[in-house]
Design goal:
Alpha-Beta Plaits, 3 domains, 8 helices, globular
Amino acid sequence: MSGHSKWANIKNKKGKTDAARGKIFTKLGRELAVAVKQGGPDPDGNSKLSDVIAKCKAANMPNDNIARGIKKAAGELFNVNYEEVIYEGYGCGGAAVIVKALTDNKNRTAGDIRHIFDKYGQGLGLTNCVSYMFEKKGLIVIERTKSLTEDIIMEYAIEGGADDVMTYDDVFEVYTAPNSLSSVRKFLESKNLAFLSAEVDMIPANIITLEGDNLVKFNKMLEMFDENDDVQNVYHNVNLPDEV
């Protein structure tokens, strides 16, 4: 497992979430809708929905908003069908970037994503042009406290069926197989642990560092993706400094 912590990138996302809460709630509402349509409105029988609900709670989405989103998706009033689309491309400095979108208009979304790659990176690529550099893993990020030691987390992770644990100054990162994320998360929840993040992630095999104008352009590209309502997640192999 790479020694690079994902938490710097997650902190970056959470900062933007606090500044644009309505936008992130809209994106999470789409994920709720897709999960309900795929497996029904009961999270006990729909592990995908259970995972999205956990993601909503990690983003501080109110329970009323979550319940309303589920009811809206399950009801007749919700008649928009979202389709998941994956784009791969290159950022400046040779960065590898994967963009996951949920869209009701693939032509519109493809045009927007291509424009962002062309303006701030090195262009949109073909399918699988960079995904081979990443491994899909479940990732649960837990805040490190004085009472929560590495030994305790390791014991819980092994008992819960996790694959690996990485320890950093401020967080623990628990890694799972993608299809084990729900069961491991539920087990850790039973131990009264709160999560800063819990979702399937794309973990890069190698990390690169950008400097100067390349770093500025790369972060501008991430900002433009973040502002696009269709974009749900962006995965990349760049080590973002804490101050960014």
